[in-house]
Specification:
The chain has 2 domains: about 350 residues, FAD/NAD(P)-binding domain (3-Layer(bba) Sandwich); about 150 residues, Cholesterol Oxidase, domain 2. Helices cover about 25% and strands about 20% of the residues. It contains 11 helices and 18 strands. The strands form 4 sheets. Strands 1, 2, 7, 8, 9, 10 and 18 form a 7-stranded mixed sheet that branches. Strands 4-12-13-14-11-17 form a 6-stranded antiparallel sheet, sandwiched between helices. Strand 9 and strand 10 form a beta hairpin. Helix 1 packs parallel to helix 11, helix 5 crosses helix 11 and helix 6 crosses helix 10. The chain is globular.
Length: about 500
């Protein structure tokens, strides 16, 4: 490691796609000195690389290393096992978490039992499905001018290397898309038909390289390629922000390898940990606006699987390619307030039953994400004044429940999944299954942005914390609206907007 930075322009806490976006833009475009810290280890030579790009044994070891307080190999629960846990409340560890993630306190807690984190350089960006759908009317943040948001989304796609051509568009995939399109014609808006899913992925001939934080960082992800004004410190936890009056002057850091604590000073601080640990750090630092940790928003997730009808999907045609890729049934506020994904099993984050797993070539998994209908202040993360988590930060508890309207949405999603299954072939299982609450990993709202400082938001539309001169929050937690689509693209776009403001302020 080069000479360590102890006085920087910008300190970034968290190294996921949003933190990486801030680092890339502030170093490359702003010419600023940036220190990024992450409490977890670096999993590969390139900082923040997606584990799906690694050889199998390396990938398995990397997933275990990312699991914070539970560094051991998990069994992979099947769809029925996860759904059974949701029905019976049998929330054992093996029913809740996916490899590479962990429950924040290392054990089952609160009323969002499957809520999980990853503790590693790259954050959840080392493990995500890379789906990057564009938010629609109804999901958009109304107080951000549409033209500004579209420009930020375009920059986010560029940084994440989003494409709709990650998988080849074969006759089989075309037929599958046609059948889905016909089944959902009355639900999809003009201009947003059933289509190939935009994925954060680059392709070289037949090989796919999935985007992680390293994709965004570019040469800054390499030890040899980092400019002198940028440094990543792994296994480095931020224990507290040091506050004077209305600004943050620095942070108290912990080197988890040596146990040494030390201070770093910064002109601006960005906390981009995740939607659970960003409010946790603010709370630990005595920064406690009324809305902090409140308005927690998760997306109820319903799943199903189907064995494709060979004749209907053209699989039996001579030379047909069985690859079907990932498809998107877009959100429509009036007719289809859901985000639908249809994906081949390679891209699916949950497993089938043992019998079906043995022959997955012509099986696709389907997942419908629901909008939470009632976003309420009482759905929240609470922090203990006395108990600590494995990093020494305030332990968390979640107060969260689905309302009657939320459950009605889940029922409607089940009906739509059955429609999709009938269009494609033979469904596996009698009915679509709801996964345990928190399984989406799409938590939002806990540091939500607002148009004015009225006690219902934590920051303004650029992520600047109300009442603080130089503190910003970023990530899924700032999204204030009910959404069904995967939030990463939106969060990266909002980080682009935050960096524009930070550059302007530091120039002044």
């Amino acid at each position: 490691m080069r000479n360590a930075m102890f006085d920087v322009d910008v300190l970034i806490v968290g190294s996921g796609p949003v933190g990486a976006t801030c680092a890339r833009l502030l170093v490359d475009e702003g010419g600023l000195s940036v220190l990024m810290v992450d409490a977890g280890p670096q999993l590969s030579e390139r900082a923040g690389e997606h584990v799906r790009n690694l050889p199998e044994e390396v990938r398995l070891a990397a997933q275990v290393a990312a699991q914070g307080p539970t560094p051991f190999r998990y069994p992979v629960p099947s769809m029925p096992e996860r759904a059974g846990a949701a029905l019976t409340g049998d929330y054992r560890l093996e029913h809740l978490v996916r490899p590479g993630t962990h429950l924040p306190n290392g054990e089952q807690w609160g009323e969002l039992p499957a809520a999980a984190c990853s503790t590693n350089v790259g954050g959840m960006g080392a493990h995500w499905t890379c789906a990057c759908p564009t938010p629609a009317e109804g999901e958009a943040i109304e107080f951000i001018p549409a033209a500004q948001m579209q420009a930020a989304l375009a920059k986010a796609r560029e940084l994440l290397q989003v494409t709709t051509a990650a998988y080849p568009d074969t006759p089989v995939s075309q037929r599958l898309r046609e059948r889905l399109g016909s089944a959902f014609a009355e639900f999809t808006a003009k201009g947003r038909p059933v289509q190939r899913m935009p994925l954060a992925c680059s392709t070289d001939l037949s090989q796919r390289r999935w985007s992680g934080s390293d994709t965004i960082l570019g040469e800054m992800a390499e030890e040899s390629g980092r400019p002198e004004r940028f440094e990543i410190r792994h296994n480095t936890a931020c224990l507290q922000l040091i506050v004077r009056h209305d600004h943050v002057v620095g942070a108290q850091l912990l080197d988890r390898t040596t146990g040494t604590q030390y201070r770093v000073d910064a002109k601006t601080v960005i906390v981009a940990a995740d939607a659970l640990r960003t409010p946790q750090l603010l709370w630990a630092s005595g920064i406690r606006p009324e809305a902090l940790g409140r308005y927690l928003n998760d997306q109820p997730q319903v799943v199903h699987a189907v064995r494709l009808d060979a004749d209907a999907c053209g699989i039996n045609q001579a030379g047909a390619d069985p690859t079907v890729g990932v498809y998107w049934v877009p959100y429509d506020q009036q007719h289809h307030p859901f985000h639908g994904q249809v994906m081949q099993m390679e891209a699916c984050p949950v497993a089938l039953t043992d019998d079906a797993q043995a022959n997955v070539e012509h099986i696709v998994a389907m997942g419908w994400f629901c909008c939470k209908q009632d976003i309420r202040a009482q759905d929240r993360v609470r922090f203990s004044e006395t108990e600590k988590d494995f990093l020494g930060l305030p332990a968390m508890t979640l107060d969260y429940s689905l309302t009657e309207r939320d459950l009605q949405q889940v029922g409607a999603a089940r009906d739509l999944l059955q429609r999709a299954g009938r269009a494609l072939g033979q469904p596996l299982g009698e009915t679509p299954l709801m996964l345990p609450p928190g399984s989406s990993l799409h938590y939002q709202g806990t540091t939500r942005m607002g148009e004015v400082d009225d006690g219902t938001s934590v920051c303004d539309d650029r992520g600047k914390v109300w009442g603080m001169r130089n503190l910003y929050v970023a990530g899924n937690g700032v999204i204030p609206t009910p959404t069904a689509c995967n939030p990463t693209l939106t969060s990266v776009a909002l980080a682009v907007r935050a960096c524009e403001r930070i550059q302007q302020e530091l120039r002044r």
